[in-house]
């Protein structure tokens, strides 16, 4: 399977809480809304998919990125599946509406993020993700790894790593770039040592 970009890494269940002003059942104010979505590496993959098909820079000589050029390396990170993952793989953010003036009319429609509510419980938790079945048959030119320090960086998650990360660059001569987005602490963990050859 040929692909230009393989995206993998930590996935979380993002729980977004949008506050409302409906304090009584008969109020017509906006009510509270809870939105769950796949976050972490899934957001990176989604952003790249949104770019697919867009006209590239006119100076670019190659083809435009296509949706089929992207492969996500974690198996089925749907909201339904993430609900069964350990609490430590959940994050929450509170969003409150702000009144703005549009066309001389006041509306509450912008939601700046308040301080994040944080991640779920900490502690040693088994890494819940699994790699897609044919990941080692994917031969990308670019590998994008979202290391949110939720376990993907540990050797206990190496079943989700592309095989060549441990074997070294000679195992994947077609890989031209590895893009690593890493949460603090930087330069730590088994994944970092595998990538840096140390």
Estimate nothing, just give the exact number of structural domains: 1
Percent in helix: 10-25%
Low-confidence segments: none
Main sheet: strand order:
4-1-9-10
Structural class assignment: alpha/beta
pLDDT averaged over residues: 83
The total of beta strands comes to 10
Which descriptor suits the 3D outline?
globular
Order of helices and strands: EEEHEHEEEEEHEH
- Count the DSSP helices: 4
The biggest sheet, with number of strands, parallel, antiparallel or mixed sense and barrel status, is:
4 strands, parallel
Terminus-to-terminus distance: 30 Å
| Percentage beta strand | 25-35%
- Rg from Cα: 20 Å
Please explain how this structure is put together.
The protein has 4 helices and 10 strands; from the N terminus they run βββαβαβββββαβα. The two termini are 30 Å apart. By secondary structure, the protein is α/β, with parallel strands linked by helices. 13% of the residues lie in helices and 30% in strands. The protein has one domain. The model has no long low-confidence stretch (mean pLDDT 83).
